[in-house]
Amino acid sequence: MKEKTRNVHPPQVRPADDNPPLVAPIYQSVKFEYASVAETQRGLKGERDGFYYSRIANPTTRQLEQQLAAMQGRQAAIVLASGVAAITNTLFALLQAGDHVLCFAELYGPTRQFIRRSLKRYGVTHSILSVEDDAGIEKVLTGTPTKLIVFESPTNPMLKVADISRITGLARQYGALTLLDNTLAGLHQHSQFEVDLYLHSLTKYASGHGDVLGGAVIGDRALIDRLRSEFVLLGGTLDAHAAYLIQRGLKTYYHRYESQCQTAMQVAQYLATHPKVERVHYPGLVQHSRHALAKAQMQQFGTVVSLDLIDALAGNRFADELKLFSIAASMGSPESLIVPPALMGTPDLTADQARLTGIAPGSLRLSMGLEDVDDLLADLAQALASL
Ligand SMILES: *Cc1c(COP(=O)(O)O)cnc(C)c1O
Question: For residue 63, how far is its CA from the centre of ligand 1 (angstroms)?
Answer without folding.
Answer: 22
